Amino acid sequence: MMEYKNYGSLTMDQEREIIEKIKKEKYKRIPLHKKVRSTIKHVILILVAISMLLPFFWMVSTALKTNNNVFSIPPQWIPRPAQWSNFLRVFDSIPFLRIIFNTVGYAAAVTFFEVVMSVIVAYGFARFRFKWKKPLFLFLLITIMIPGEITIVPTYIFWAKLGEFFDTSFINTYIPLILPAIGGQAVHIFFMTQYFRTIPKDFTEAAYMNGANSWTILWKVFFPMSIPAVLTITISSFMGTWNAFLGPLIYLNDVEKFTIQVGLAMFQGMFNVNWPLLMAATTISVIPMIILFFSFQKYFIPSNKSSGVK
Amino acid sequence: MSYIELRNVYKVYGNDVLAINNFNLNIEKNEFVALIGPSGCGKSTLLRMIAGLEEISYGDLLIDGKKMNDVHAKDRDIAMVFQNYALYPHLSIYDNIAFGLKLRKVDKKTIHEKVTQVAKILGLEEYLEKKPNELSGGQRQRVALGRAIVQGSNIFLMDEPLSNLDAKLRTKMRVEILRLHKQLGVTTIYVTHDQVEAMTMADRIVVLNKGVIQQVGTPTELYSNPANLFVAKFIGDPEINLINATIQNGELIFGEYKIPLPDTIKSGKNYEGKEIYLGLRAEHFSDDRLTVENNPAQTITSEIELIEMRGDHCIIFTNINQQSIQLKVPADRGYTIGDNISFVANYDKMFLFDKETGARIR
Q1: Cis ω on the peptide bond leading into residue A81 (within 30° of 0)?
Q2: Residues A254-280, mean pLDDT to the nearest whole number
Q3: Mean pLDDT score of chain B, rounded to an integer?
Q4: Which of A210, B48, B76, B153 could form a disulfide with B100 if both were Cys (CB 3.0 to 4.6 A apart)?
Q5: CA A72 to chain centre
Q6: DSSP character for B21?
Q7: pLDDT range class, residue A306, cuts 50, 70, 90
Q8: In this structure, are residues B247 and B274 in contact, taking their beta carbons and an 8 Å threshold?
Q9: What confidence tens digit (pLDDT) does each residue in B278-294 have?
Q10: Taking CA atoms, what residue in B is nearest to A228?
Q11: Contact B231, B220 (CB under 8 A)
Q12: Contact residues, chain B, for A208 at CB < 8 Å
């Protein structure tokens, strides 16, 4: 290594020179077996990535095939000619546009209620002292552990009877699908409670001394300070609703009211499946998910930027 | 009538924790009072009770003659600076300073004027558009001060505001806070566990231990005239030297050394034959050659164990009678570890403490 007799500060160039040298030295000193290990790691990671991407590729590829060459051997990776018309035929064979609108509305409503209510309930659990707080929180956690499939029959009966009670019918409406969201979502409540608990008390007290009440503190302090967490539950809620199948399948009867996942199932008959159309429709249905995921990806990585507190 | 009065204040947590025990204090207008004590002594609790963040279990808090126990924090005319600054990370510096005013529905024009004015006082003008995480520790601290100043309150409460800063910045902010205090003349109650902060900044210091006031006084009073062992140990750096000693036949005996007992104690409680503490501060010793040669009978010689360089002086770690003590000597003496040092103690300055109760005897 070079010696620098300069006891003052170094120039930028001198600094860069030292850093470059150290980097080179460091790389030279990495033993062979470590380099080999690193290569193997990368090969494995690439293989895993391919195995994840392959189904996507197969989906898009099938969407562009004719019904005849879906299962041709050897498999046709890039179909020729590409049947772009499959995407239009999706809209002809079922009211797909209407179905998309239904799903957007349904997902937006559920997401809105689930997020807002979960935030409010979580704030209560995180910041207030009240009787039975611990048992209530435990009860909340227990509800997460019950699989939804178990409750689906009693829930259906409940909504049917409730409809009778009010002299109307809730079956074939969105009410049983949207109304429960007003109670919030147990996993989100748990998640937000944990997040809120990490916000130092000083923030609350500073706002309190300025005359803010609990409601103001929630929306002006806690909520904006928890944007990454809120976005996480928002995306999770939206995806969950967008991909929901069983609920809409059971409660909705008219094609005009269907959601995307139920709509997709229409391409699967008892004996034959129209693979190209199913895959074309599926491709359309995952586009919003992909856009959503990539645009908010940075928020999934928890940020440590809440540096108002040191 | 004082500006802030605390009368027989108690704080009880749960059923059995007495955090504050019969606290009485009068604070005058424009005064800078520091509350100090070890962690858990109740100093923060007291501050929070004054702020209105904690309920007062018993006793009265009066501000400007009005009882404040049940008045909401926002109506007490108090601004508080928190240890963690509590700056909202999602808001710009401008909005952080304006936060309280906005909550109080002050009109936009007035807010703008006030924030700009405060930013000018604190030298924050160019940072108003930035977010807290773009600022350095000292700047954040200044924003926290700005948030308190902008409210125009007559009382500032500060809860260890400098403890998150590095040593150099702390010294700098100390001066800045003092300057602000002189400039604004706001009555300030300052909580810290750092005696240096309290000594350098406060007009008066309140020393607390386990929820009980140990002493109230000016920095000089506390240093040169501590009320008891606790205050003597808490104030001063290096810590006061405490030497085990016995009183026998009008003499103070520690190991092989004997000194005549000062007159003041003879009239007091009878400590004949009892063990007590002899307290001497590091600067109450002299290794000056002339002094040592003139007092051969009083000279103590022992080996140097450690030397702590402090620039113009150094702290010598040595011992008397197997009890370690620290001496403050000029840095140019040229001692090295293992040398013998001869010194004379200035017994006129000594403190004597009851070993059991910690009460000051002399």
Answers
A1: yes
A2: 85
A3: 91
A4: A210
A5: 35
A6: E
A7: very low
A8: yes
A9: 999 999 999 988 888 88
A10: B90
A11: no
A12: 53, 73-74
**Of how many residues is chain B composed?**
362
Tell me whether B105 touches chain A (CB under 8 Å). Answer: no
Query: What pLDDT score does A270 carry?
Result: 67
* Average pLDDT score over residue span A74-96: 82
H-type alpha helices, B257-297: 263-266, 289-294
Q: Kindly indicate the confidence band of residue B65, based on its pLDDT and cuts at 50, 70 and 90.
A: very high
A110: closest CA of chain B, how far (Å): 27
Q: How far is CA B30 from the centre of its chain?
A: 19
Quick one: which of B362, B301, B295 has its CA closest to B335? B301
* Amino acid occupying residue A201: K
**Residue A301, pLDDT score:** 55
Work out the pLDDT band at A66, boundaries 50, 70, 90.
confident
What is d(CA A109, CA B190) in angstroms, rounded to the nearest whole number?
51
Q: Which residues in chain A have Cβ-Cβ distances shorter than 8 Å to B89?
A: 225, 305-308
Q: How far apart are CA A184 and CA A182, in angstroms?
A: 5
- What band does A307 get if pLDDT is binned at 50, 70 and 90? very low
Contact of B124 with B135, CB cutoff 8 Å: no
List, in order, residues 6 or more apart from B33 with CB less than 8 Å away: B25, B27, B188, B189, B190, B202, B203, B204, B205, B206
Distance, in Å, from the CA atom of A125 to the CA atom of B62, rounded to the nearest integer, reads 35
For the beta carbon of residue B203, count every other beta carbon within 10 angstroms.
Answer: 15
* B304 neighbors B339 (Cβ within 8 angstroms): yes
* Chain B nearest CA to A310, separation (Å): 6
Start-to-end CA distance of chain A, whole Å, equals 39
* Long-range contacts, B321-324 (Cβ 8 Å, 24+): B321/B243, B321/B244, B321/B254, B321/B255, B321/B256, B321/B257, B322/B255, B323/B242, B323/B243, B323/B244
Distance CA B148, CA A166 (A): 57
Band of the pLDDT at A308, cuts 50, 70, 90? very low
Tell me which residue in B82, B103, B151 faces A216 most closely, judged by beta carbons: B103
Q: Return the number of other C-beta atoms located less than 10 Å from residue B338's C-beta.
A: 8
- Decide if B320 contacts B259 (C-beta within 8 A): no
Residue A118 and residue B136: Cα distance in Å, rounded? Answer: 35
Look-up: residue for tokens 């005696």? B195
Using alpha carbons, list the distances in angstroms from residue A222 to A122, A197, A199, B105.
Answer: 11, 10, 8, 20
**Dist CA B193 CA A33 (whole Å):** 54
E-only strand ranges, chain A: none
Contact B85 A310 (CB under 8 A): yes
DSSP secondary structure code for residue B35 in this structure? E
DSSP state of A173: S
Model's pTM, two decimal places?
0.79
- Chain A residues contacting B, CB < 8 Å? 200, 202-203, 205-212, 216, 220-221, 224-225, 227, 305-310
- Predicted-assembly ipTM surpassing the 0.85 threshold: no
Amino acid at the residue A60: V
B83 interface with A at CB cutoff 8 Å:
yes
Residue B101 contacts residue B151 (beta carbons within 8 Å)? yes
Q: Which of A90-99, A107-116, B14-23, B88-97 has the least mean pLDDT?
A: A90-99
Residue A6 pLDDT: 56
**B137 pLDDT above the threshold of 90:** no
